[in-house]
Amino acid sequence: MGSQQLSANDTKDSPMTDVDDAPDVGGIYSPDIETSDDYAPSDSESDTTVDEEYADDSRALSIDELPTFVISLTQANIDRSIEIPYGFWQRHIPMGAIEAGVSMVTERGMWRCTLKHNSKKIWVKHGWTRFKHKHNLVEGVRCHFKLVDALVVQFYVWFDRP
Predict the structure, then answer these.
(1) What are the phi and psi torsion angles at 108 (to 5°)?
(2) What angle (nearest 5°) sits at the alpha carbon of residue 162, between those of residues 122 and 104?
(3) H or E, element range at 69
(4) What does the alpha-carbon distance between residue 153 and residue 143 come to, in Å, rounded to a whole number?
(5) Region Disordered: which residues (predicted)?
(6) How does 110-135 read in b/e, with b if 16+ C-beta sit within 10 Å?
(7) CA–CA gap between residue 10 and residue 150 (Å, rounded)
(8) Positive or negative: CA dihedral 137, 140, 141, 145
(9) pTM listed for this prediction
(10) pLDDT of residue 64
(11) In this predicted model, what pLDDT tens digit does every residue of 46-93 receive, in sequence order?
């Protein structure tokens, strides 16, 4: 593993990259290629809300007039990855934005994550492992994802711990 790099704008709590030749992107974490986030969900089971169960959130899940979804983490989420509810994405985010990935912003900084998808699911491909470790996420934590920018797909994320 390479040495960790800090830019002048980073603090000790800022996300870092461990790739020696990674460009300095001002404290924004960009996932490396060698990660254990190579999870692909099965078509038969899902640990997060699936489209059939995803209720229209046009009124119910709006915080500050911004659409929000919540995932209660299961052991499968801790071991593998999380899925973004497909119905949420269809209602609020352009489908072409999947290719660009997402930014997850917390009080500790910003993490870039890449996505994968099939005709029924969207899941975080790279970046989830570092995000969950940095935030000490465990089974039972409720993660709230508030969509703050649908064009660059940026979520503000906060947690309710058991």
Answers:
(1) -95, -5
(2) 35
(3) strand 66-72
(4) 17
(5) 1-54
(6) bbbbbbbbeeebbbbbbbbbbbbebb
(7) 26
(8) positive
(9) 0.67
(10) 73
(11) 444 434 454 544 444 566 789 999 999 999 999 999 999 999 999 999
Are 17 and 32 contacting, i.e. CB atoms less than 8 angstroms apart? yes
> Can you read off the two tokens belonging to residue 54?
């995803």
Tokens of 132: 């969950």
For residue 58 the two structure tokens come to: 């046009």
Asked whether the beta carbons of 106 and 158 are under 8 A apart, the reply is: yes
Contacts of 5 (CB under 8 A, 6+ apart): 16, 17, 20, 22, 24
Residue with tokens 């997850």: 104
CA atoms of 122 and 54, how far apart (whole Å): 14
Structure-token pair, residue 76: 């499968």
DSSP 134-160: HTT--TTPEEEEEEEETTTTEEEEEEE
Which of 91, 82, 58 is CA-nearest to residue 131? 82
d(CA 1, CA 78): 23
Give the separation between CA 80 and CA 139, rounded to whole angstroms: 12
Rounded to whole angstroms, the Cα distance separating 4 from 20 reads 7
